[in-house]
């Protein structure tokens, strides 16, 4: 796994909508009201479509009038196909980790994550993959959002509701995960608004960074 050239990242990109305790607690009461009725038992998934793929150094285009928000997230890169894997064995299916800016428009509801909010061109900026063995403790990593060099947000994976192993076990119970798939482990509470001309940088301890410039386009 230490040869990064062999780590495939060309599969599907799945996101977990509510995987930070700080965010979940602010919304917990809503889940007992319509349309939710009760709190979610399984991970709340959404998809980042292929057109969202982006990379560090590239431009991210926002449409005029839209509110674009940064989404600091640690990505799990699947290295071996899974189906109904046990949590105790799940780490064997992880090839590595990647810094991700899961860009999004604001969402009014987590009941059905909006395609328009999540799947616009370039709305998933991926950094370089770091092999699993090179990350000492994935459950205690600080995430940072910097805009134009100014620190705007901090989070920590110690605030996760589910660890990578739990996520893989729960998802693979009903859906296979394949080599090259990436799972975004969620974003902390408090997304940061981005403006045209901003340089946004996402940093995660031991994993790296991804940096992009925001450009506005007329509708």
Protein model, in words:
By secondary structure, the protein is mainly beta. It contains three helices and 15 strands. Strand 10 and strand 11 form a beta hairpin.
Write the layout of secondary structure elements.
Elements: E1 13-16, H1 21-27, E2 45-48, E3 53-55, E4 59-63, E5 68-69, E6 72-78, E7 94-102, H2 115-118, E8 124-126, E9 130-131, E10 142-147, E11 150-156, H3 164-172, E12 182-184, E13 193-194, E14 199-204, E15 208-217
Parallel strand pairs: 1-12, 3-8, 4-15
Antiparallel strand pairs: 1-2, 5-13, 6-7, 6-12, 7-8, 7-9, 10-11, 10-14, 14-15
Unreliable spans: none
Total helix count?
A: 3
| Secondary-structure content class | mainly beta
Mean of pLDDT: 90
Main β sheet profile:
8 strands, mixed
Distance between the termini: 44 Å
- As a whole number of angstroms, the C-alpha radius of gyration is 17 Å
Overall helicity: under 10%
Descriptive terms for the model:
219 residues, mainly beta, eight-stranded mixed sheet, five-stranded mixed sheet, 15 strands, 33% strand
Summed up, what is this model?
By secondary structure, the chain is mainly beta. The chain contains three helices and 15 strands.
